[in-house]
Specification:
Elements: H1 2-7, H2 18-22, H3 25-29, H4 36-47, E1 50-54, E2 57-60, H5 65-70, H6 98-109, H7 114-137, E3 142-144, H8 145-162, H9 168-171, H10 176-186, H11 188-191, H12 195-203, H13 209-226, H14 235-245, H15 253-284, H16 286-297, H17 305-309, H18 312-324, E4 334-335, E5 341-343, E6 346-348, E7 353-355, H19 358-361, E8 365-368, E9 375-377, E10 380-382, E11 388-391, H20 431-448, E12 449-452, H21 461-464, E13 467-469, E14 471-473, E15 478-483
Parallel strand pairs: 2-7
Antiparallel strand pairs: 1-2, 3-15, 4-7, 5-6, 8-11, 9-10, 12-15, 13-14
């Protein structure tokens, strides 16, 4: 089998570590520290844009791979076996059958109409105020801000998804559910490359206990919600109501429980981690914070969601944060259709798992040289001395420049490299609400506080200690929020 995979397999012409072509266990061994994003970046630097990272898996680092995998009504890329991790509880975000997914998408659409989102915004504002009050209590003191933003994300998710208040912001303490949730995601760091091993563990008594506990907790939330009568519709209301109206509640139970898991992960963790990275960037770039504060000072009400949608620098900061720190660093796996597919000028055989690591694609460089010439020797490229690295997606790709999203569009070379909410039929259905949460919190805190690192620290541990656990897990954000001193415009001199 090993000889076949190395010398005769359909992917034999794609470069990569030899042992990776033999078994995905090679990948697991190199991901035990949950640093898959760093590993893939090293592989990209060594092997180029197409790297064989498994017997039947390619990791592709060109921006064209993202629309190829997601765009188009007739797109035939499918979700691979990784998405069976929580079976039989299959929600919107992990349903592999395209027809079932499209049906569930229509059900979910009702929960995210403009009217529904406006109702959720009232709750977002209330929790943002609680977050600000908590920060006010520690004003001028060193805080680990991760917990504040995670409390906010989980409190909002609980209320919007299940009409349940976890009271973490009000009580200023962790809910036991967070530990269950984080421990469950942690196992995905080393085991994401081998979904079959996760399945074996979850089906074995005593195996993958953290993952099973996370799934069990999400199930309990949906079961409890079904017994609850609420005055204000939440997301679960629309999902449950659909099944009741169609007399399919019993048949839909596993799906509804899977939806609860989707709501928990997508509705809390992604917003929280983006806010952590965002305020890390504002602390590192006080000039960008000042520009934002000037913009916010020009608004009549920084809690006006409609006005915040049009605040250019605010939205530029959010977009730039998600570009540099995508919520999903290396996931987004898809499987090619049976007939194969052309990606960036190369044919990829059918039924091959494709990975598109956005963490690396957004900062991608390629070799440019006289005649665009490269000679391959074995599995490595030999480049002439005239070669140079050229940024292919964004100018100054590793720099935090929010202006590229409004006043300097020429700094965006390839928009395909930016898809924080995915594309096509798989675009995040909660995108509008997630952006409103980010805008609301950022505007409220930036209008009232300056944020900085404590003396002698630069906050780099936020990036350096980031873990790749399906979603990103930032390092500690140690900052000081100080009540803002409004900057007065200099008065004109009297003649």
């Amino acid at each position: 089998m090993s000889i076949y995979r190395v010398f005769f397999h359909r992917l034999r012409r794609f470069p990569g570590p030899v042992l990776a072509s033999v078994s995905k266990l090679w990948h697991v061994a190199h991901c035990l520290d949950s640093k898959n994003h760093i590993l893939l970046e090293k592989l990209h630097n060594e092997y180029g844009d197409f790297v064989r990272t498994g017997p039947s898996e390619l990791t592709i680092f060109t921006p064209d791979v993202i629309p190829a995998m997601f765009e188009g009504i007739n797109n035939t890329f499918t979700r691979p076996a990784w998405f069976d991790t929580s079976r039989p509880y299959s929600g919107l975000t992990n349903e592999r059958d395209t027809s079932i997914h499209n049906h569930r998408r229509r059900v979910w659409d009702q929960a995210f109409t403009s009217k529904a989102v406006r109702n959720y915004e009232v709750q977002v504002k209330a929790y943002a105020d609680q977050l600000e009050q908590l920060i006010a209590q520690s004003e001028g003191q060193l805080v680990v801000a991760n917990q504040y933003f995670q409390w906010f994300g989980f409190d909002v998710m609980g209320q919007v998804a299940f009409s349940k208040d976890f009271n973490m912001l009000r009580g200023a303490q962790w809910h036991s559910a967070i530990k269950v949730f984080r421990d469950g995601l942690a196992i995905l760091g080393p085991l994401t490359p081998v979904p079959w091993l996760m399945r074996i563990g979850s089906d074995t008594p005593g195996g993958s206990n953290d993952l099973k506990a996370m799934i069990k907790w999400a199930i309990q939330q949906m079961d409890a919600r079904m017994k609850l009568e609420v005055d204000q519709p939440d997301v679960s209301h629309y999902l449950i109501d659909w099944s009741r109206k169609n007399n399919t509640l019993k048949e839909d139970m596993d799906t509804l429980r899977g939806d609860a898991l989707s709501l928990t992960v997508a509705g809390s963790d992604t917003v929280a981690l983006t806010l952590i990275y965002l305020f890390y960037r504002l602390a590192r770039h006080p000039e960008e914070l000042q520009k934002l504060q000037t913009e916010l000072d020009g608004l009549e009400d920084v809690s006006d969601f409609s006005a915040l949608q049009h605040a250019e620098h605010l939205n530029g900061i959010i977009n730039e944060t998600m570009r540099l720190h995508p919520a999903t660093l290396t996931g987004n796996h898809r499987e090619t259709p049976p007939e194969g597919a052309m990606i960036s000028g190369r044919f990829v055989p059918g039924n091959i798992v494709i990975c598109s690591p956005r963490y690396i694609i957004g900062k991608r460089k390629y070799f440019a040289h006289a005649g665009q010439y490269a000679v391959w020797l074995g599995r490595k490229a030999l480049l002439t001395r005239l070669s140079k690295l050229v940024e292919s997606c964004f100018e100054q790709a590793k720099e935090f420049i929010p202006e590229r999203w409004y006043s300097k569009p020429e700094m965006i070379k390839n928009k395909s490299a930016y898809a924080p909410f995915a594309l096509g039929r798989y675009v995040c259905i909660g995108k509008t609400l997630a952006l409103q949460e980010m805008r609301c919190v950022t505007a409220l805190l930036a209008s009232k506080y300056d944020v900085s690192f404590p003396p002698g620290e630069d906050g780099r541990s936020v990036e350096e200690d980031t873990l790749d656990q399906f979603t990103s897990s930032p390092g500690e954000l140690r900052v000081i929020f100080r009540a803002r001193q409004k900057r007065l415009e200099p008065k004109p001199r009297s003649m």
